[in-house]
Amino acid sequence: MQTLIIYSTIDGQTLEICRKIKILAEQMGEQVSLVTLEQAEVLNLADFDKVLIGASIRYGKHRPELYQFVNRNHAVLDTKINGFFTVNVVARKPLKNSPETNPYMQKFLKLSLWQPQQLAVFAGKIDYPKYGLFDRTMIRFIMWMTKGPTDLKGTFEFTDWGKVEAFGAHFSKL
């Protein structure tokens, strides 16, 4: 199987999740290409048997380029084994960590012409020391409002790696 994993990330957690899924797929005997959304623009999606896209949220939105890419390529994506996952800190909450209950996944499905076959939602990571002043202030405010961590010296990883592995193993078996 020729598998393409495409990622759209701001701070790198989506890339880390994609790397984990890539390792799992390779262990299952797949040939895997891991590329950014920008790099995927020049690839021929028809060359792949499977396509998985992972995308992060920043300030409540996926990047506009994600929608442009999937809407432009939905016809070919539909001919492949395919999947999509979103990474967001809201998914740290038990009632918002599934495709059916996560508001960002639901928004994606409403705005996208592509309706992926496999869906997943993963909680992300907050790394205050890594952020610039604006992002640090905004993210801290959002965390304060949603009862999340606000210690500006802290890094808080919410990703459930067992859930990532289970999804990656399932996608690799398709």
From TrEMBL:
Gene3D superfamilies for the chain: 3.40.50.360
Taxonomy, superkingdom: Bacteria
Note describing how the cofactor binds: Binds 1 FMN non-covalently per subunit.
Enzyme Commission designation: 1.3.5.3
Localization per Swiss-Prot or TrEMBL: Cell membrane
Cofactor: FMN
Keywords on record: Cell membrane, Flavoprotein, FMN, Membrane, Nucleotide-binding, Oxidoreductase, Porphyrin biosynthesis
Span of the signal peptide: none
Pfam families: Flavodoxin_5 (PF12724)
InterPro entries: Flavodoxin_dom, Flavoprotein-like_sf, HemG, Protoporphyrinogen_IX_DH
An MF annotation (GO) of this entry: oxidoreductase activity
Recorded catalytic activity of this chain's protein: protoporphyrinogen IX + 3 a quinone = protoporphyrin IX + 3 a quinol; protoporphyrinogen IX + 3 a menaquinone = protoporphyrin IX + 3 a menaquinol; protoporphyrinogen IX + 3 a ubiquinone = protoporphyrin IX + 3 a ubiquinol
Flavodoxin domain mapped to chain residues: 4-152
Membrane topology: Peripheral membrane protein
Pathway of action: Porphyrin-containing compound metabolism; protoporphyrin-IX biosynthesis; protoporphyrin-IX from protoporphyrinogen-IX: step 1/1
Family indicated by similarity: Belongs to the HemG family.
PANTHER family per the UniProt record, alphabetical: PROTOPORPHYRINOGEN IX DEHYDROGENASE [MENAQUINONE] (PTHR38030), PROTOPORPHYRINOGEN IX DEHYDROGENASE [QUINONE] (PTHR38030:SF2)
Task performed by this protein: Catalyzes the 6-electron oxidation of protoporphyrinogen IX to form protoporphyrin IX; under anaerobic conditions uses menaquinone as an electron acceptor, under aerobic conditions uses ubiquinone as an electron acceptor.
Protein name: Protoporphyrinogen IX dehydrogenase [quinone]
Lineage: Bacteria, Pseudomonadati, Pseudomonadota, Gammaproteobacteria, Alteromonadales
